[in-house]
Amino acid sequence: MRRVKDTAIAAVTAVALGSGAWLLLGGTHPDAPPQPSAEQALTARTGRGAAAPALPPSPPDRVRIPAIGVDAPLTGLGLTATGSLDVPPAGKKNLAGWYEAGTTPGETGTAIVAGHVDNAEGPAVFYRLGALEKGAEIEVDRRDGGVAVFTVDAVEVYAADAFPDEKVYGAADRPELRVITCGGPYSRSTGYQGNVVVFAHLTGSR
């Protein structure tokens, strides 16, 4: 499997992971996706919880986040011509993707999973990602038959023009996971103006 440095990935564009077209039907939509609160931000205490031993490399097949009702298959993602992370097909609203040229979920390093917050028809796979809280679990089914279990350390939202590439995509000395979707304010002219990012680390496997 080809490996590239995590920091080579440019920031995920807000437009790529959420169109918000369905919001336009009613102006300010009462069911706009939830955004993380300040209490869910990354801190020194939550950012370095005890980690489980790393797993050998194995591509992932599925991601589950029980706290927000996510149970979705995973497809491999690459990079666009401009170096940003590609995204799953917008029409498949319950499909998420993982960056297949990087770390596989469970091995040492930073694994990346991304998915749409919505599409033209309504909410998509990571619509409720901003409602996730510290301590929640994320399960990733691996092709080797195992399940990698991650614990959420933080959920943050960033403006697209201030996305912290190194913080999100930078290399890690233990098994970590980032889950990314659109977030922040919504504009009719530009769509979502930022991204929600979940930070998690491996705490178990089975």
From TrEMBL:
A Pfam family this protein belongs to?
Sortase
Q: Name the SUPFAM superfamilies for this protein.
A: Sortase
Q: Where is the composition biased (Low complexity)?
A: 41-53
Q: Which GO terms describe its molecular function?
A: hydrolase activity
Region (Disordered): which ranges? 28-63
The answer to whether keyword Hydrolase applies is yes
UniProt keywords, alphabetically: Hydrolase
Q: Which residues fall in a coiled-coil region?
A: none
- Stored InterPro entries: Sortase, Sortase_dom-sf, Sortase_F
Phosphoprotein found in the keyword field: no
Question: Which superkingdom does the taxonomy of this entry point to?
Answer: Bacteria
Q: What is this protein called?
A: Class F sortase
To which species is this protein native?
Streptomyces coelicoflavus
